[in-house]
Design brief:
The complex is a heterodimer.
Chain A (H helix, E strand, L loop, with lengths): L1 E7 L2 E7 L5 H8 L18 E4 L2 E4 L12 E3 L13 H8 L9 H15 L5 H7 L11 H16 L1
Chain B lengths: L14 H5 L15 E7 L5 E7 L1 H4 L4 E6 H6 L31 E2 L5 E7 L2 H8 L3 E6 L6 H4 L15 E8 L1 H9 L3 E9 L11 E7 L4 E6 L4 H10 L9 E4 L15 H13 L3 E4 L2 H7 L6 E9 L5 E11 L28 E9 L14 H19 L3 H8 L6 E2 L5 E2 L4 H11 L5 H10 L3 E10 L7 H6 L8 E7 L5 E5 L8 H13 L6 E4 L17 H27 L7 E4 L2 E4 L5 E3 H10 L13 E6 L8 E10 L6 E11 L6 H21 L30 E5 L16 H18 L10 H17 L1
Parallel strand pairs in B: 1-12, 10-11, 14-15, 20-21, 27-28
Antiparallel strand pairs in B: 1-5, 2-4, 2-6, 3-5, 7-15, 8-13, 9-10, 9-12, 13-14, 16-17, 18-26, 19-20, 19-25, 22-23, 23-24, 26-27
Classes of the chains: A alpha+beta, B alpha+beta.
Chain lengths: 158, 788
């Protein structure tokens, strides 16, 4: 077992983990932050996307021990309980960009990274290409694409 | 229409928890003292198990137990069953082979569970599983359904000679043969309906907990129908009596049929939990999902359609071999029979139909219902035959369809179904307008100028949903009734809980069902909660599949609401000292006809419980009513999808240039949610047509076992969809709902393939039409043209 310390959703956390523990396991099992999901075992589905030091990362592709001192943001960190939703969360809700909800946390975290990299005026083609790393089986992506565009716009205003 | 009532695009109540990551899926749940299960699975498609040696594994760190199928049998845990009896045309019953949750003596597909390792952590269980030694005698395997019945093919189960489960038929062979003899033109097609993996993004998971004090078991499970799971696990597997088994299906991350079935892992977790007296948790990884979730489709079909000189369809015949995999999954027998053969009339008036289906075992994962289940296969047969027939006869495909559409209702087809309502001309017309089919020739010329091929394809589909009248399905072999239950509990303060046997795993029932209650009782939607997915809360239910939750589940709620309203009127009559017959209930208010007396909903609810205005002899206190609704017919959603593709002949790369869907779902409760269902269904159908396909090699190894190999539709593979509706109310249920969940997946594969074959000028291409397949088809067609 090995010790690791990092900041998750603004809070300092420490853990004593088996060295092979992935970040997603650390988040789900040690911290009980179960909003980050596991949908595959080949880093394809994107349900586990979180932000590490401001950049989207599939949390199944990195060991918890690699994140000593890192700043991690998960879906639970976007809006405090009872507080208004983040504009991107609100856009997914408003545009029916989710059905079963399982891919949704990863979709939202990836979408925020798209906005960071590509700005607030996103066309459909860009959004579809940039969502390559996130799989949804329910929505056919139609409303996810609408949600990302709307969320990106709303973020410019907020 | 109120802002939250029937027909309003109400934003979903469940989304707050999903967009904030606060849902509770099965794998999110943990129980104190739980151990983790890891299943050791067969690496061979077909082999005898000579010996299992778990000695070394049992000594590995953290290991609590290693269990196998022999111990399961010793504990008298019964086999999994298929719950729909199909008889062959000779009258013999289907050949259901033993299906133990852990293999006994023999494995029949790669991934067949052989043993389970329980350990303190999942990593320890995995490590220990590597130390389990299994001595296999490998046997030859058969994976191709078309070869399963051949002489000399490997025999998988003793009970089923030639790997044949049943040889079923439907329709009249004599009149159909006569129709073909009198035909002016016959169109013939060989069709492979490709095998698919359902791939709900949440993998299956089970968490079982034994309470030794109460001698009862609780199972948290990724299920679309927790009550059916409990019934099967109690009554057939014999795990525990029904009243000692609680099944909870919490938030479930998609199903598409794959989470209907009772799987080995949930049985083993329950058994193991009692055995080691600790909670046992298992979550599939995606590789396990590919190896164990029931697959879909996998038909090999020869089909023919007979036309007269005017293009009127005289008859249809189809011979299908359906691959059911290594074991018969829960409802597998019904899919290629009563969910397939019965839909072969499509939207057309066809005097004679004859369908033969041989179901076979192969050394592959079991095959069962996947979104559409039989109806996509039927639609593909009918819509490809009509399209190709039109091309062969030089007729416009839309005209040929119009000529043959059923135009008056009710309409009895020659294959059981009695269509109750529809307007196929209307949906075709509207779809053609939205798709601007008049402008297609110009767009085709534009594409040609850019060196591209352009094609257009129609699919005018029908499906039978709202599954289904219990007496009817019972006569066809179903082991269960297919009604639905509801209970409406009004609280003293007027808020309402609805307990439903339907189960939501993405469909948004918490919103749509609440819309119904809000409209009916005139109360804010926030004051309504929908409770589902727990056998301790909801007394019984049949679950969600077959696009049935609206048509059947909501009808049960309507029935219960009728009773609640009747009782509330009695209460209001006592409150206002009026005759019960004079009480009018409208917009959440009870009034006495012809007076200015009124009582609000909340006041009546409170009076029902405080019971100050009536004696117990006059009226029973409380306001809670239940209902079971058994449908009177299937429902028949229908519509027209039009796909336009543009193909680069140099690479075969195919782009969907536009997609139009016009569907008739009857009454729509929430158009936003319905459109979402259509989008998702179309995506799965486009996936089948262009991207997806399970591949086994000759030895039965799964080649497409991960998202690296199996092509899931991604955002850039798909267009935005143009979605419209037409409406004929369903006359068979109180709300007029037909159902919308499967339509997209049923309609779309034929539309895609009709468009691609139109573009390349050849019918000689199978699904999935990958760029390589399209390129090869183009070269083949060019070669044939040069030779001619």
């Amino acid at each position: 077992m090995a010790a690791v310390s990092m900041t998750v959703n603004g809070k300092a956390v420490t853990g004593n983990v088996d060295p092979r523990t992935l970040l997603v396991q650390f988040l789900r099992e040690n911290l009980r932050l179960t909003g980050t999901h596991v949908g595959c075992d080949t880093s394809q589905c994107g349900a586990c996307v979180v932000h590490i030091n401001g950049v989207a990362v599939k949390s199944c592709t990195i060991l918890a021990l690699q994140l000593e001192g890192a700043n991690v943001l998960t879906i639970e960190g976007l809006a405090a309980p009872g507080a208004p939703l983040h504009p991107m969360q609100e856009a997914f809700r408003e545009n029916h960009g989710l059905q079963c909800g399982f891919c949704t946390p990863g979709m939202i975290m990836s979408s925020l990274d798209i906005v960071r990299r590509k700005g607030n005026n996103l066309d459909e083609h860009t959004i579809r290409e940039e969502l390559d790393g996130n799989i949804c089986r329910c929505t056919g992506y139609h409303n996810i694409v609408k949600a990302v565009a709307a969320g990106a716009k709303a973020m410019a205003k907020s | 229409m109120s802002a939250t009532g029937i027909g309003a695009a109400v934003r979903r109540k469940e989304d707050q928890r999903f967009v904030t990551g606060s849902g509770h899926y099965t794998d999110d749940i943990n129980r104190p003292g739980q151990v983790h299960a890891y299943f050791l699975r067969s690496p061979h498609a077909h082999a005898k198990i000579k010996k299992i040696d778990a000695g070394a594994a049992g000594k590995m760190p953290g290991v609590v137990a290693v269990l196998n199928g022999t111990e399961l049998a010793t504990d008298k845990i019964g086999n999994l069953i298929c719950g729909w009896m199909i008889h062959s045309k000779d009258g013999s019953p289907m050949k259901m082979a033993p299906n133990s949750a852990l293999a006994v003596g023999k494995v029949c597909h790669v991934g067949n569970a052989v043993a389970v390792v329980l350990a303190e952590t999942l990593a320890q269980a995995r490590d220990a599983a590597e130390k389990v030694k299994v001595d296999y005698e490998v046997l030859p395997a058969v994976v191709d359904p078309a070869k399963a019945q051949a002489q000399g093919a490997p025999q998988i189960h003793e009970i089923a000679p030639n790997n044949t489960i049943y040889q079923w038929h439907l329709g009249d062979p004599k009149t159909t043969d006569a129709a073909f003899k009198s035909a002016k033109h016959v169109t013939k097609l060989d069709i492979v309906n490709n095998r698919l993996a359902p791939n709900a993004i949440e993998p299956r998971a089970s968490l079982a907990e034994y309470d030794s004090g109460a001698d009862s078991l609780t199972l948290w499970n990724t299920s679309q129908n927790p009550h059916v799971a409990r019934l099967v696990i109690a009554a057939f597997v014999g795990m525990a009596p029904e009243h000692k088994l609680r099944v909870i299906a919490p938030d479930v991350g998609g199903g598409f049929g794959s989470k209907i079935f009772i799987y080995p892992e949930e049985v083993v977790c329950l058994w193991a939990s009692r055995k080691v007296c600790r909670p046992v948790k298992w979550t599939a990884d995606r590789s396990e999902a590919f190896l164990t979730d029931a697959h879909g489709r996998d038909h090999v079909t020869h089909a023919e359609m007979a036309f007269d000189a005017e293009g009127k369809i005289l008859g249809l015949r189809a011979k299908t071999i359906a691959n059911l995999g290594a074991y018969m999954s829960t409802f597998s027998s019904s899919v290629p029979t009563y969910l397939y053969g019965t839909l072969l009339s499509g939207q057309y008036s066809i005097p004679s139909i004859y369908c033969e289906v041989d179901a076979v075992y192969t050394n592959t994962v079991p095959v069962d219902a996947y979104r559409g289940a039989g109806r996509p296969e039927a639609t593909f047969v009918v819509e490809r035959l009509v399209e190709v027939g039109a091309r062969e006869m030089g007729l416009n495909p839309a005209d040929l369809r119009r000529r043959n559409f059923i135009k008056s209702f009710p309409h009895q087809t020659p294959v059981i179904m009695a269509y109750d309502a529809g307007d196929y001309l209307a949906s075709l017309k509207k779809a053609m307008e939205i798709a601007d089919t008049k402008g297609f020739d110009k767009r085709k010329r534009d594409s040609e100028r850019n060196g591209k091929l352009r094609g257009i394809g129609y699919s005018t589909y029908i499906e039978a949903c709202g599954i289904a009248p219990s007496q009817a399905v019972g006569s066809l072999g179903a082991g269960v009734g297919l009604w639905e239950s509801a209970e409406v509990r009004v609280n003293p303060t007027g808020s309402v809980e609805v307990l439903t046997g339907s189960h939501s795993h993405g469909q948004g029932h918490e919103t749509t069902f609440a819309q119904l209650v809000s409209e009916r009782l005139g109360i804010p939607i926030e004051n309504v909660s929908i409770v589902h997915g727990d056998t301790d809360k909801v007394q019984f239910g049949m679950g969600t599949y077959g696009s049935r939750s609206g048509a059947v589940g909501m009808s049960a709620i309507v029935k219960a609401l009728d009773k609640v309203e009747a009782k509330a009127k009695k209460v209001a009559a006592f409150m206002m000292e009026a005759a019960e017959g004079d009480i009018v209930f409208k917009d959440g208010k009870f009034t006495v006809a012809g007076t200015d007396k009124s009582a609000e909903w909340g006041a009546v609810a409170l009076n029902a419980y405080i019971a100050h205005k009536f004696t117990g002899a006059e009226l029973e206190p409380g306001l809670k009513e239940g209902a079971f609704y058994d449908p009177t017919n299937f429902t028949f959603p229908s519509g027209c999808h039009i796909c336009e593709v543009e193909i680069d002949p140099e690479t075969g790369a195919t782009e969907i240039a536009s997609w139009t869907a016009v569907d008739d779902f009857g009454t729509i409760i929430n158009p936003m949610i319905v459109e979402g269902q259509v989008h998702g269904g179309i995506a799965q159908g486009i996936g089948q047509a262009m991207l997806e396909g399970i591949v086994y090699d000759k030895e039965g190894q799964l080649v497409t076992g991960s998202y690296m190999d199996y092509t899931m539709p991604r955002a850039h593979n798909l267009p935005s969809f143009k979605v419209g509706t037409t409406m004929t109310k369903c006359p068979s249920n109180p709300l007029g709902i037909k159902g919308c969940g499967e339509a997209g997946a049923i309609a779309s594969p034929a539309a895609v393939m009709n468009a691609i074959t139109d573009a390349i000028g050849s019918e000689n291409i199978a699904m999935p039409a990958t760029p390589q397949a399209v390129w090869v088809a183009i070269q083949r067609a060019n070669g044939a043209r040069k030779a001619a």
